[in-house]
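can u do me a favor
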């Protein structure tokens, strides 16, 4: 589509249209349009946040107390007021600015009303949630800006560019994790818990005592049963079963040949694991057992987690299809794509651990700086499960944590309200793209705007905006076809 502005209409020139023709062509009343959008946003926001907060409450795994219920209800009400306030303010400022200025221009058709509505709505939301919301909209806005620049031929896609962003960002976070910056409650972040789960606790700052205790426990078990490696780690249960007059499971003769075969396979597996655990380990390595076992254990664990998650999600998302015809189960699960997440997580953990052990063996020291090359190499696994959303989220999370550390060390100034400003600016970009060039917007975000507005975002007339040469009407048609949404006002 043409990406140059009309030669006859300057970019800052006003367009001669009314809010009835552009903002709410389904009604002649500004008040009715504003109230209708607000009521629908409120109901949809209540549904969204009611589900989110209740699922969060149930995931705690305990019977909620009165205080927990009170906080949950207050959170639902507050978040609902925040999101519905954005829709209310957007419609209000669209009509109000047109009445004050007497016309629309390229900034007031969406960007400025979205920014102003976000200023008021974000102040309603809890401060603890503002950073998370800011990271999300900044993530989507970054991708949108790139798409807008690419559509204007200002930039071009770089092969493996998202993988490079992910690798550099995750390497920075791994360095902070290894350095122990997250030990301070001021800089604790949920991202560090994810990193600890993926790469293991032994790469964390100050984990040497824990690994030494695990090593001592293992070798004490080896000394107690030196003649039979298969008894390592189970001496207590064996002695207990012997004292009680029952023979241990290892020496029990099974009449069933299948059970006997399984028993022998378990014994062989246990001996193999024992031998791997007893391989070489460098003195500077913080983990117990051998480096080979450390790498294999991390890769195997994360591969299993990734495979379990992928299978679970496929079963949930295709539940109707499977229930209608159980024969579809094979088509849903037995695909190469099912292994992508598992390979990504397993390879990431294995490569990172293996690189860290190699660097410790080469340098003779366990340095936090080793996490940078190890993280970059581990980031190669991203190519197996590429996701721009994940790459941009990790990038913004690394930027946020780096900024906080810079403030703590006195290297960067603390800007009051920066998170709120970035949220409002990013939201303005997204609403601007949704109106003028929706093909550059992430499809999932378009669906969200369509849902939360009751279809009104698609019913706003794009015909008056064609003066800027962005082919806005055609762009809207393409998005409606791609996302399977319709220009119908609900409620």
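np, heres the sequence
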């Amino acid at each position: 589509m043409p990406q140059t502005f009309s030669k006859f209409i300057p970019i800052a020139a006003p367009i001669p249209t009314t809010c009835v023709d552009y903002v709410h062509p389904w009604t002649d009343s500004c008040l009715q349009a504003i109230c209708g959008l607000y009521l629908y946003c409120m109901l949809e926001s209540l549904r969204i946040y009611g589900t989110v907060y209740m699922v969060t409450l149930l995931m705690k795994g305990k019977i909620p107390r009165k205080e927990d219920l009170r906080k949950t209800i207050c959170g639902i009400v507050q978040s609902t007021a925040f999101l519905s306030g954005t829709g209310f303010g957007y419609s209000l400022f669209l009509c109000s600015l047109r009445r004050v200025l007497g016309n629309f221009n390229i900034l007031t058709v969406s960007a400025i009303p979205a920014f102003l509505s976000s200023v008021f709505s974000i102040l309603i939301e809890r401060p603890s949630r503002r950073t998370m919301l800011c990271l999300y909209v900044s993530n989507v806005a970054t991708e949108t800006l790139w798409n807008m620049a690419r559509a204007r031929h200002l930039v071009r896609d770089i092969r493996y560019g998202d993988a490079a962003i992910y690798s550099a960002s995750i390497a920075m976070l791994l360095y902070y994790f290894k350095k122990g910056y997250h030990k301070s409650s001021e800089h604790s972040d949920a991202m560090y818990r994810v990193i600890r789960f993926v790469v293991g606790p032994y790469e964390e700052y100050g984990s040497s005592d824990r690994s030494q205790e695990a090593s001592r426990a293992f070798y004490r078990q080896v000394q107690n049963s030196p003649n039979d490696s298969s008894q390592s780690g189970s001496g207590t249960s064996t002695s207990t079963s012997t004292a009680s007059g029952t023979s241990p499971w290892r020496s029990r003769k099974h009449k069933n040949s299948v059970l006997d075969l399984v028993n022998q396979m378990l014994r062989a597996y246990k001996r193999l694991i024992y031998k791997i655990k007893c391989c070489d380990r460098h003195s500077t390595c913080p983990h117990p057992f051998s480096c080979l076992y450390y790498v294999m254990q991390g890769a195997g664990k994360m591969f299993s987690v990734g495979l379990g998650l992928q299978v679970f999600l496929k079963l949930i998302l295709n539940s109707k299809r499977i229930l209608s015809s159980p024969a579809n189960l094979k088509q849903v699960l037995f695909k190469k794509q099912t292994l992508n997440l598992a390979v990504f997580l397993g390879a990431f953990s294995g490569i990172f651990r293996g690189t860290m052990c190699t660097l410790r063996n080469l340098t003779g020291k366990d340095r936090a700086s080793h996490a940078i090359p190890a993280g970059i190499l581990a980031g190669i696994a991203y190519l197996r499960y590429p996701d721009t959303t994940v790459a941009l989220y990790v990038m913004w999370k690394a930027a946020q944590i780096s900024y906080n550390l810079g403030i703590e060390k006195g290297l960067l100034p603390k800007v009051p309200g920066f998170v709120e400003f970035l949220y409002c600016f990013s939201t303005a970009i997204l609403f601007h793209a949704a109106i003028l060039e929706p093909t550059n917007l992430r499809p999932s975000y378009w669906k969200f705007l369509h849902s939360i507005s009751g279809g009104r975002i698609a019913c706003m007339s794009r015909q008056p905006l064609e003066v800027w040469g962005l082919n806005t009407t055609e762009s809207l048609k393409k998005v409606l076809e791609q996302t399977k949404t319709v220009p119908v006002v609900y409620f």
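The longest helix spans residues 66-101. hope that helps!!
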